[in-house]
Automatic annotation (TrEMBL):
This is Acetyl CoA synthetase. GO terms for molecular function: acetate-CoA ligase (ADP-forming) activity. InterPro entries: Ligase_CoA_dom, Succinyl-CoA_synth-like. Residues 3-100 form the Ligase-CoA domain. It comes from Thermoproteota archaeon.
Amino acid sequence: EESYRGAVRVALEDPRVGGILVIYCHTAITDPGMIARAIIKSYIECRAPKPIAVSFIGGVECNEGLKLLNDVGIPAYPSPDRAASSLGAYYRWARYAELI
């Protein structure tokens, strides 16, 4: 949990990082809900205006974590390709809108 929280915080605070793709793979010793809460906490604490997308890989055991993230407005998906595609769509839109 702390490793995800720390990694998200470092990426959010680094001015060289333009966006974040977080990938979590469920294991028997980790709790997807706790990982989701750690990501949420870092994102809220940093208040960085950076796009973020999260992928939780692990089937139905990850549904709680995905719901927690989506409920606070952090796009979360059950596969990395969908999460990466969402960031790509954001950047295409931002370029079109001349935001970046």
